[in-house]
Structure formats: C-alpha cells, structure tokens
Design brief:
heterodimer; A: alpha+beta; Nucleotidyltransferase, domain 5; Actin, Chain A, domain 4; 3 domains; six-stranded mixed sheet; five-stranded mixed sheet; 38% helix; B: alpha+beta; seven-stranded antiparallel sheet; five-stranded antiparallel sheet; 6 helices; elongated; Actin (chain A); ATPase_NBD (chain A); Actin-related protein 10 (chain A); phosphoprotein (chain B)
C-alpha cells in the first residue's frame, strides 16, 4: 500500500541515526559532552543549579505544548501533568462555512488559511494566550509531510509572530515519560500507525514503519456496515466514532480466527443505541470493527508485523531491548483489548515460519506511561518543554533570517559540524 | 448595521487582501489605512468567567490554571451547574423521648451541585454534600503527578548539564591540543565509538527509577462477550476528553469540572503598534475604550436597487453613500486598475502644499521610537479571488457628502445645503447620505443558470480629514484615500 509519509521515504535506509537536531539530551549516551561532565563529577554543581532553575522557570513566560494530531489536538502548558484540553483538529471554514478537518487540506494555500483559523481559535478560546512572542513546542512525527511542517512554521512565525518554536519528534519525546533510554514506540492514531524504535536515545530511522491503519479505517468499516443495515439513517462519522468508543472492542485472537468460519462463536449481545432514530448495533459489528487492523494487506503487513519488521531491521544487539520495551501510544491503542490482542498476535507470529528463522525473541514486554495513551506524546513534550533549552529552539529572528525550518531530511542540516567533532 | 447576518454584498478590500464587509474592518487613524481581523495583531486583554462574569488578573489566571474557582460545568452536558440547598436526612431519634428533644435541633443545611438541563447531581456521582454553599468541592488530582514531577526535575538537571557544556565550549582555550582536553576527548570518544552505553558507576540519586516494562497487559474482560451493554451508562468520547487524566468509562465516575475562563481581545495595528480596538476592562460592559472601526471613518456603500441584469445590456444601479465622519467629504469613483497610493492634498488651509507621498508611505507615525520597536513581520497578502464580471460607466463628477449631523436626523424641514448636483447622477440626497445612479453592463459570456452572480468592482476615493495630527498641535491633514470595493449586485435574468 502506498502511503502518505512515503513522501519522505527517499531517505529510507540512509539514516541510521538522526541528525543532532532531533537528539534529545535525555539519554546520557547521546550527548558525549554530558558524559564528560559525569566523569568529572559535576553532580554537586548540578544540585546547586537546580533551585536556581526553578525560580527562573516560574518567572519566565509559560511554554505552550501543542500536539496537533490528525483527529484531536492536545494542548497545555509545559510542566503540567495533564493537557488543558483535547479538542478536534477541525475548524469552520470562513468561506464555505463548513466544518473541515485540518489534515484534509487541498493545497498549501488552503492549509495556510485553515491553520490560521484553527490556531486562532486554539490560542484565544482554548489555550488563552497572546500568541505574539509566545514560546511554543510542537510535537510532530518524523514522517510528517514537509508541506505541512513548513506551512505550520510559516503560520506561527509570519501570522502569529510567535517568539520561538521547538519541534519535537513524537516518538522521541514520548520516551521521556518513562525514564528509560530505549523503547519501541508504536503510535496508533486516527490516520495512520507509525513506529520508530529508539535505542539509547537515538531514533533508528531505517527501521521506521508506517501503515494507514488507525481510527479512520475503523470508522470506514463501521460506516459501511451500518449503512447496509440502516440505509435510511444518516450515519455520520461523529456518530460512528461514538459507537466505536462506547460499544466496540478488539476481540481475542482465538475468537477472531473462528469468526469467518462455520463454527463462529456466539456473537456478543447487540446494543441498542439511542438517537433520533434508535439503532441496534449487532454483536458481530461490535466484535469485528477493529479486525481491519489485524488483517494482512497485500504486502502481508498489519500492526503486529510492523513491530516484528522494525525489530528485524534494527541491529541485532538492540533487538532484545526493543522487544522488551514496547510503548503503545495514540487514541486507537486505548481500545479495550488492543494490547492483549497485540501481544498474542506477536507471540503467534514469532513462531510462524516467516519470522522464526530471523527472529529469536520469545518475550515482548509493554510499558505503561504515567498518562493515558492518547496524550502520552503530549506529556513527553510537556516534560521536555519544562526545561529551558534555548539552543534547541528556532527563534523568530533565525526563522525570519533563513526562512526555513531545520529538517532531518535536508542535507543542509545534516552536515557534520566540524567544530563539535573536534571538541568532544 | 442591518446586514450583520446577511451575505456580504458590499465588500471592502483590506490592505492584506481580505474581502470584508464594512462592519468587520478597522481603520487605523495613524497609518490612514484599512485593517481587518486577519492583519492586525490580536492580544488577550482580560480574562473573565462566562458564568459569574468575574474579572481575573492574569497572574491569578495562571495560578488557577485558567479556570473559574466558583463555577462548575456539568460533566455530562457541559452546562453550568447550579448549587442547590438540601437538608440532612434526620437520623432516627433514640427511643428515649427526652434525648430526642435535645437532638432535634435545627436541621443542618447542606449543598449539592445539580444540572438543570440533564438532571445530573453531585449526589448521583457519590460526591459528599458540602456544608458551605461556596464550595470546598473535592478536586481531582492526576494520580501520576508525583512521578511526572520527578521526571521533570531529572530533565531539568540534564538540561543544566547541557547548558554548562555549551558554555564551556564558548570559553574553550584556543589551543586544541592541550593535554587535558585531549584526554577528555579520547575517553569519551572511545566509549562512544565502541558502543558502550557508558553507564557511570556512581548513579546520582536524582535519576528517577526507570519505568518497568511487563509482559502482562490489560486483558479483554471475558464477560464482554456475554454481558448486555447499556449505552447510556458508558461515557461518550466528548465527556471523557473533558477530564483527560481520568477518561473514565463509567458515567457515575464523572466529576464536575471548573468552568474555563474566556478572554476579551484587543487589536493592535501591526505596522504602527497602536491599538485599534480595546474593550472596556469590566466584563459586564459592552463598551470599548478604543474602537477604530471603519464604520466611523470610511464612507459606507449600500445597494439600493438594481434593474434586472441581462448579459451585454446596460442596467441602472442605485447606490447609497453615507459619510460617517464629522467632516465634509467628496467621493470619486474610479476604475479598478487605479493605483492605490493615497494623496495628501492639504496640510494647512492657508498653504496648500502637495507633499511627497513616498514619505507618508514608508514612515507611519509610531508610538515607540524606531530603536525600541520591533521590525514588523511581513506576511504575504492574500490574493483577491473575486473577479468583476460587469463593466461600470464611471461618472466624471465627484459626489460631495456633508458631515454627519445627528440633529439633522430628526429635522424634516429639508436640506439647507445647496449642492449643484447633476440630476442624472445624484438621484436623492438627505443629510450626509446620497443615492447615485450608475450604469452597469454585465459581460456577454455570463449565463443565466451557472449561479455566478454579477460582480462589479471600483475604487472609491474619499477625502479623509485626519484629526490625529491635532494631538501634536498641527493642523488636521486632508487626505484623498482610496479603497477597493466589490459589489455583488445580483444574478443574470434571462439571456441576451
């Protein structure tokens, strides 16, 4: 299946480690300077600095953390354990007066106007902050289309005149919620499922995985099946989303194998869903709604194979660590039975002929972040944004001077910095 | 403004390229230019609670996490909850009659929250009643706060280490071959090179314990296949997202949430940084401290009537012009391709000097001296999407509109002004308003049924008296300003 984020996949395989711009300071190994500090025993001076940092942080302007997902936008302030709110990533278009999803943009200009409208509402209705000279952290996937990224930066700097912007990788920022350095982060959101393994603080980009499996495809399935049963009822996506959240679940592997066969298990009870026209949701639909995530596509890919394929593409000595540090994030991963189904799928697949040769891993271990999966990435940003790192921010002056955003796919930002090499 | 809810028939083109009706644009008196909500700098002016209308200073807002401490909203339907008073159910008095008399004191009043719309009450949710009306309601706490704070502290330490490192780099001695520096390089580099994760032997106590992964995951409850589901007992996604840290599935576990504060915005011109619109600080007041709406400065154009439009045929169009200012103005209609530079005509009544326009263009008066002030960030102008598809015969003479006189509105005796108007051009005149007649010819290629309305466009040049200069003890400036207008005058009736 050809995928949106393949736009950037030209560099696939070339980058084992990302450029410095994306490397978090969190893992000790990623920052050689930090090791030197450790070796010289600077921990005493660190403790002194800490109180000073606290004072400075409070007097400073608060940092706004935004995670603009394809379905929901999470927003809040740095250093807080919970986002201030989660809203739909959609806005009423001023020209056509219809509610539009930001990610369903037509072209760059359309996206520019949509983002202005959306961010305006976000800043003044929800975050309630004057965007001028504000410090903003945005969480983005490493696979986000360049067009979206550049337009977003342009809107923030040119229209809202924000002070500084820090773009953080979703997968990388997420691990700061755990306090570990290596994790295999699988983000199952609305439009797509993306996976990037992180080892000792470095994203292993050559092992990236992305499939268009997420909430959207589940909605499409539900809409199709419900429209067949109730052709006269107006089945909207909002209705389908509510039905999905309240009644559907991911069934077990054993039951799923029998579903299409003759001796199918007894379906779960049907649910009466009230509305203008009350509809009855059959048990089969409730059970089968999420099956699409586990079915193999033409390339024999699905969510569990993403994890296994990623592990295979990683260096052999990292595989075990990654398999024992899996973290699931994203709203779709919160579905009842999702994690247990994933685990049983993984254990079955590993024994299959396709993987048993290549992969000698027997156990998979899952992390639980101190948050709900749908805002874990935001929390990672909030933890990371609470520290004062002016060097990692793109300031307004720098943006206006260069008129571009540093990007890991761009060679200009990937040049080997001679000075740092000498120094470390 | 009667046309607030109507489609925008008469649109003014703002300097940023947006098309807006006159009720939605500003006029910056300092730049003498039209601004709109798109091209001004919006700021948060004051915070207030939409329910109790209490004003809060921004420091307090930050402390209270942008929430009103007194008002709650219903966790089910998001309406404001009201506080209800109830009585404690009296305990069964002991058998002893004398004692019961003592116990039977005044029943204690208790308070609970209730939603008048969906009938949710705090008693349903199992929240204990409060003895005070003002609250003391239990606050929800994120169960992971402690852990997250430990992680934040740890990250702050790492950041300060990184900062120290970068500062050290700045003051690095010029000799790169200093022995100590050399040694430091090699040990660190070798460790990295051989791929050791370099765990320092002495772990500082500040490092939080890393999260432990487990093979156990939350299993699907087996009764899901047999137990019937009552949808009304399960929360909707919207209800869950109102309380992101809990996101409970059970309706009974929903807790009332504090109402979020709203803001009043003030608008500032991006070029000269003057306020264009500033609301009154008091949240109950609907007045403005500063309100530079274009409605008070730019002549207003309305469509009176238009003859049925036929492609290629000339039709009469009646337009009403209204001068809202306190000074007499003259309006000239020009074709769309007229250059838009304003002309400064008269600085002083006595000496009529035509000044250089360029100076006026580049240097707009500013509040702050140029050193302090930031360079305005330039945003590209929006392209104008609308295309005029009808020709207009522009009149040669200009229309003079007298100043607005509120008393004249009630004066039926007729006009005292004596204007030498061409009766073919000016149809009607009263006070500061006048109706003119234009001839419009829609293009031949417009068809009746393709739903494309006939649009005309012209440049309106108007005389504007800038009184802001009187603040600097100068004579008022008289400027000839221009604004582009697009009018949607109707649909094609019949074919040519």
């Amino acid at each position: 299946m050809i995928h949106m984020s393949c736009l950037r996949s030209k560099c696939k395989g070339k980058f084992t480690i990302a450029c410095n711009f994306y490397v978090l300071c969190f893992p000790p190994a990623s920052s050689p300077g930090y090791i030197a500090a450790r070796l010289r025993g600077t921990t005493r001076s660190v403790k002194m600095l800490r109180t000073y940092e606290g004072i400075r942080f409070f007097s400073d302007k608060q940092m706004v953390i935004l995670d603009i997902g394809s379905a929901y936008t999470k927003f809040g302030y740095a250093g807080e354990p919970t986002p201030r709110g989660i809203i739909r990533t959609e806005i009423k278009c001023p020209d056509s007066k219809e509610l539009r999803k930001i990610y369903n943009y037509k072209d760059t200009e359309d996206l520019y106007q949509l983002l202005i409208e959306f961010l305006h509402a976000l800043f003044f209705k929800h975050v309630v902050i004057s965007p001028k000279d504000a410090r903003i952290v945005i969480l983005e996937s490493l696979l986000v289309p360049t067009q979206f990224r550049d337009t977003l930066a342009k809107v923030l700097f040119r229209h809202f005149e924000i002070g500084s912007l820090m773009l953080l990788s979703t997968h990388l920022a997420t691990i700061s919620t755990l306090g570990v350095n290596s994790a295999l982060v699988l983000d199952v959101g609305y439009k797509e499922a993306t996976l990037i393994p992180i080892y000792e603080g470095e994203p292993i980009l050559k092992a990236w995985q992305a499939l268009p499996l997420g909430g959207q495809i589940v909605h499409e399935y539900l809409m199709k099946s419900l429209r067949e049963i109730y052709p006269n009822v107006n089945i909207t996506e909002k209705l389908v989303e509510d039905i999905k959240v309240r009644t559907c679940f991911v069934t077990t592997l054993e039951r799923s194998a029998k579903l299409e066969t003759a001796d199918a298990p007894k379906p779960p009870p049907a649910v009466k869903y009230p509305g203008v026209k009350s509809i009855n949701i059959p048990g089969e639909i409730r059970e089968k709604a999420f099956e699409v995530l586990w079915e193999r596509d033409n390339d024999n890919l699905s969510i569990p194979t993403m994890i296994l394929n990623a592990i295979i593409q990683c260096p052999i000595d990292t595989r075990r660590t990654l398999a024992e540090n899996i973290l699931l994030i994203g709203g779709t991963a919160m579905t009842k039975g999702f994690a247990s189904r994933l685990k049983s799928e993984l254990l079955t697949l590993v024994k299959s002929s396709h993987y048993s040769e290549k992969l000698k891993i027997q156990t998979f271990m899952f992390h639980t972040a101190p948050s709900k999966p749908n805002y874990t990435a935001w929390l990672g940003g909030a933890i990371f944004g609470s520290v004062d790192l002016p060097l990692r921010c793109l300031t307004k002056e720098n943006y206006l001077k260069s008129d571009r955003v540093p990007d890991w796919v761009s060679l200009i930002d990937n040049q080997r910095d001679e000075s740092t090499v000498c120094e470390t | 403004m009667s046309y607030l809810n109507q489609p925008d028939y008469v649109c003014y083109v703002c300097n940023c390229g947006s098309l807006k009706p006159i009720s939605k644009i500003y006029f910056c008196r300092h730049c003498s230019k039209i601004r709109c909500g798109y091209c001004v700098c919006q700021e948060v002016d004051s915070h207030y609670c939409p329910n109790c209308m209490e004003n809060l200073p921004s420091s307090e807002v930050r402390l209270k996490k942008n929430k009103c401490s007194n008002c709650f909203k219903c966790p089910c339907c998001f309406q404001t909850l009201s506080t209800r008073a109830g009585h404690v159910p009296l305990r069964v008095a002991p058998a002893d009659a004398e004692d019961s008399k003592d116990v039977k004191t005044t029943p204690k009043k208790v308070y609970y929250l209730s939603c008048s719309l969906c009938r949710w009450t705090s008693r349903d949710a199992g929240i204990p009643d409060q003895s005070m009306a003002t609250g003391g309601w239990p606050e929800q706490e994120n169960p992971h706060t402690y852990r997250i704070n430990t992680l934040i502290d740890y990250h702050k330490i790492l950041a300060s280490i990184e900062k120290q490192q970068s500062e050290k780099k700045k003051f690095r001695p010029k000799h790169p071959y200093m022995q100590i520096a050399m040694f430091r390089i090699t040990s660190a580099m070798v460790r990295k090179h051989i791929g050791h994760p370099t765990k320092p032997t002495t772990e500082s106590t500040d490092q939080p314990s890393p999260a432990v992964a487990s093979t156990e995951v939350e299993e699907l409850p087996t009764d899901i296949f047999t137990e019937p589901v009552e949808v009304t007992k399960i929360t909707t996604l919207e209800q869950r997202l109102q309380q992101p840290d809990i996101q409970t599935e059970n309706v009974n576990e929903l807790r009332p949430q504090h109402r979020q504060l709203l803001v009043r915005r003030s608008q500032r011109c991006r070029v000269c940084e003057h306020n264009l619109c500033k609301p009154d600080f008091c949240s109950q007041s609907a007045k403005f401290k500063i309100q530079l709406a274009a409605f008070y400065h730019v002549p207003e154009v309305r469509i009176v009537t238009c003859e049925p439009l036929r492609p290629g045929k000339s039709s009469e169009l009646l337009l009403k012009f209204c001068n809202p200012t306190q000074h007499q103005t003259q309006v000239v209609l020009l074709p769309l391709d007229t250059p838009m530079t304003p002309i400064l005509t008269i600085v002083d009544e006595k000496e009529e000097v035509k000044q250089d326009n360029a100076q006026q263009e580049s240097e707009s008066p500013n509040l702050l001296p140029s050193i302090v002030r930031q360079v305005p960030v330039v945003e590209e102008t929006k392209p104008i999407r609308i295309i005029a598809n009808a020709d207009v015969v522009f009149p040669q003479n200009c229309l003079i509109l007298p100043r607005r006189d509120d008393a004249a509105e009630y004066d039926d005796t007729g006009d005292t002004h004596n204007f030498q108007d061409d009766p073919k051009f000016v149809i009607w005149r009263k006070g500061n308003k006048a109706v003119i007649k234009l001839h419009v010819t829609p293009h031949e290629n417009i068809e009746e049924n393709n739903n494309r309305p006939v649009v005309i466009g012209f440049v309106m040049q108007y005389r504007y008296v800038n009184t802001i200069t009187t603040l600097e003890h100068k004579a008022p400036q008289k400027l000839d300003l221009k604004v582009k207008l697009y009018l949607t005058i109707g649909n094609i009736v019949g074919s040519a």
